[in-house]
């Protein structure tokens, strides 16, 4: 049970990373993994509404970035009541820091962890560790779909020189996976924003 829990936890982390950061044109050291699919971030930049964060406030995270994203989203998609901001924890902390630097009551509340600070423009923040620093998405999370096959195979290898010499077992998981965005028009990405 413990081994399967570890295996499934790592598979979940890897799948989240691939879903967000997959890029069939990637040439980084992680290319063997990331080139499997085009992930949600690449799909957002190719077909969703994109706010160029580098052109707002000198690129430094500010409320203007969030207002620009809000204005870029067609109003009809707010009706679901499920729209959220998705960002990594470092970007979230930079947002809180930007608000806390204001010489207003909101600045003091940001330092105290007030709920309003965690809801820019009334929409909650969802932590997505796989997103890069300064990358923010405004969307309904149910719009992001991971399509997996039912045929998931787990293979164990305890034979071979590497396994024998290291007294180890190697496990591999095989499955088909495709991250899709159901309605690209219902998404906004802030790209090119810098965080402190």
How would you characterize the overall build of this protein?
The structure is a single chain. The protein has 196 residues and is an alpha/beta fold. The protein has helices at 2-21, 31-34, 40-47, 63-72, 89-100, 105-111, 161-165, and strands at 49-52, 84-87, 125-127, 136-139, 144-148, 153-157, 170-174, 177-181, 188-191. Helix 5 runs antiparallel to helix 6 (105-111). 26% of the residues are buried. The mean pLDDT is 86.
Task: Spell out the blueprint of helices and strands.
Layout: H1 2-21, H2 31-34, H3 40-47, E1 49-52, H4 63-72, E2 84-87, H5 89-100, H6 105-111, E3 125-127, E4 136-139, E5 144-148, E6 153-157, H7 161-165, E7 170-174, E8 177-181, E9 188-191
Parallel strand pairs: 1-9, 2-3
Antiparallel strand pairs: 2-4, 4-9, 5-8, 6-7
Helix pairs in contact: 5-6
Q: Which strand order does the major sheet show? A: 1-9-4-2-3
Shape: elongated
Radius of gyration from the alpha-carbon trace, in angstroms: 20 Å
Overall average pLDDT: 86
**Main beta-sheet strand count, sense and barrel state:** 5 strands, mixed
Distance N to C terminus = 42 Å
What is the overall number of helices?
Answer: 7
Residues in helix, %: 25-40%
Strand content: 15-25%
- Poorly predicted regions: none
Structure summary, number of beta strands: 9
Task: Give, in order, the helices and strands.
Answer: HHHEHEHHEEEEHEEE
Quickly give the structural class.
Answer: alpha/beta
């Amino acid at each position: 049970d413990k081994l399967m829990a570890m295996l499934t936890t790592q598979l979940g982390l890897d799948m989240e990373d691939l879903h967000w950061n997959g890029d069939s044109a990637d040439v980084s050291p992680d290319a063997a993994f990331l080139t499997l699919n085009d992930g949600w971030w690449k799909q957002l930049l190719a077909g969703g509404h994109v706010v160029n964060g580098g052109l707002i406030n000198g690129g430094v995270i500010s409320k203007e970035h969030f207002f620009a994203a809000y204005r870029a989203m067609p109003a009809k998609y707010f009706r679901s009541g499920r729209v959220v901001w998705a960002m990594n924890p470092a970007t979230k902390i930079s947002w809180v820091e930007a608000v806390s630097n204001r010489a207003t009551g909101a600045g003091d509340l940001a330092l105290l962890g007030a709920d309003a600070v965690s809801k820019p423009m009334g929409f909650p923040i969802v932590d997505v560790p796989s997103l890069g620093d300064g990358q923010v998405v405004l969307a309904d999370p149910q719009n992001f779909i991971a399509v997996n096959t039912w045929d998931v195979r787990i293979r164990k290898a305890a034979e071979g020189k590497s396994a024998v010499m290291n007294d180890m077992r190697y496990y591999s998981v095989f499955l088909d996976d495709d991250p899709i965005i159901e309605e690209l028009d219902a998404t906004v990405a802030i790209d090119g924003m810098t965080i402190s």
